[in-house]
Amino acid sequence: MIFDVIIISLAVIYSLLIIWLIIGWHRLSYFESYNNQPNTKFSIIVPARNEEDTIRDCLDAILGQHYPKKLFEVVVVDDHSTDGTAGKVSDFIKNKFAGNISIISLSVIEGSGFGKKAALTAGIEASKNDVIITTDADCKMGSGWLRTIDSFFCRHKPSMLVMPVYIEQWRTFFHKLQTLEFISIAGVTGASAGWGHHIMCNGANLAFVKDAFEKIGGYSGNLNYASGDDVFLLQKMKKAFPKEICFLKSRDVTVKTNPLPDVVSFFNQRVRWFSKNKAFKDTATIITGTIVGVFNLLLALSPLCLFLAGCIWWFMAWVIKIVIDLPLLTAAASFFRKQKLLWLYLPAALLYPFYVFVTFILGLRGRFLWKGRKY
After folding, report:
1. Is 35 exposed, middle or buried (0-12, 13-18, 19+ CB in 10 A)?
2. Cα–Cα separations (whole angstroms), residue 362 to 271, 293, 356
3. CA distance 174 to 255
4. How far is CA 329 from the centre of its chain?
5. Alpha carbon of 44 to those of 247, 252, 318: distances in Å?
6. Is 120 left (phi over 0), alpha (psi -120 to 50) or beta?
7. Of 14, 136, 198, 361, which has the fewest beta carbons less than 10 angstroms from its beta carbon?
């Protein structure tokens, strides 16, 4: 009887959460940019560690913006790369005569430390403009990226702007599963924003006012975590400027990144993300994460529970999850124009609870490898 009550209660709570998110997604208006005179001065910070294969494409995409080059600068921060990243950037600047791109190296900045937060901090300190945009060295964006961000800043004047990210290249089944997961993450990010309860963001496509960043102390307070530069910053901004955070629902500002090549690197990344969860202080984030995490962990244990208790409600919980998740994923996939990936939904939905379980177990160990650095 106790098993019945637990799984029924969690299934109901989870369903109410997803319904809340579905409504939130549709509450969020699609932003239509207008042909205003470019006005905002941007500093784009690109932290890079061992990104010699991707950094040139990223810089090409940034330089290809339909936006006056005098209104934006790019600061690439080399985070102790052991490959040719710094040389690739220097050659790019020289060959493209890109006077608005500069590169700095953490290895020559005394006391700068290591890691993405240190790289971002150094880049922001070196920046000259009032609005900061962060992206990753393996990302690309469309030519209307900056113009649309400028249009939104001119109209709404946010302190922080959260924007969508998705995976572009998907050749294998594993890559396609990663793409579908990123679409679902973007859906939850936008859906929670639709209610004004921002719970997630992605540092690969994030903008904020430099003055606001400095007022909240930047990334201080969470420097001991390898991950979370984006979400920790969001939570601090949310506490200081709760009405000044927006999600920009527009295809013109989406940033594309690449899938991870193999299962080992995939779980290393997920464990890195998981490692920061215990430091979260935002109520909405904790509640949402707990409901989703516990429900999926119980589903992953359902074969054992069915064997021990023979409870039909475990089977029904799977059906409820599969049915209730689909509308939100469909809406997000439609936004990214990736509806053709929805044929993968059923196998992905069946695998997801077990993926959460494995990540949880590995996360308890707390060790992972990222960009050639052990944590």
Report:
1. exposed
2. 7, 14, 10
3. 20
4. 16
5. 18, 17, 44
6. alpha
7. 361
Provide the pLDDT for residue 141. 96
Q: Pull the structure tokens for residue 147.
A: 């113009």
How far apart are alpha carbons 150 and 108 in whole angstroms? 34
| Side chain identity, residue 120 | L
- The helix or strand, by DSSP H or E, that contains position 208, with its residue range, turns out to be strand 206-209
**Angle between the N-to-C axes of helices 173-194 and 312-336, in degrees from 0 to 180, rounded to the nearest 10:** 90
Q: What is residue 40's predicted lDDT score, i.e. its pLDDT?
A: 95
pLDDT at residue number 227: 74
* Residue in the block written with tokens 């044929």: 343
CA-based nearest residue to 230, from 286, 293, 180, 163? 163
Residue 265 CA to residue 141 CA, distance in Å, equals 24
Q: Are 58 and 137 in contact (CB under 8 A)?
A: yes
**Is the model's pLDDT at 279 over the cut of 80?**
no
Q: pTM here?
A: 0.93
Cα–Cα distance for residue pair 154/117, rounded to 1 Å: 28
Closest CA to 100 of 88, 92, 108: 92
Secondary structure element (H or E) that encloses residue 133, with its range: strand 131-134
Q: How far apart, in whole angstroms, are the C-alpha atoms of residue 175 and residue 138?
A: 16
203, with CB counted inside 10 A (0-12, 13-18, 19+), is buried
* pLDDT band (50, 70, 90) for residue 193: very high
* Domains of the chain from N-terminus onward: 31-175+196-261 (3.90.550.10)
What contacts 63, CB < 8 A, 6 or more positions away?
Answer: 69, 96, 98, 101
**Per the structure block, which two tokens stand in for 300?**
């992953």
User: Which SS3 state, helix, strand or coil, does residue 69 take?
Assistant: helix
| Angle separating helix axes 55-63 and 85-96, nearest 10 degrees | 30
Residues in the chain: 375
Q: Which H or E run includes 247?
A: strand 245-247
Contact status, residue 73 vs residue 101, Cβ threshold 8 Å: yes
Q: What is the DSSP letter of 277?
A: G
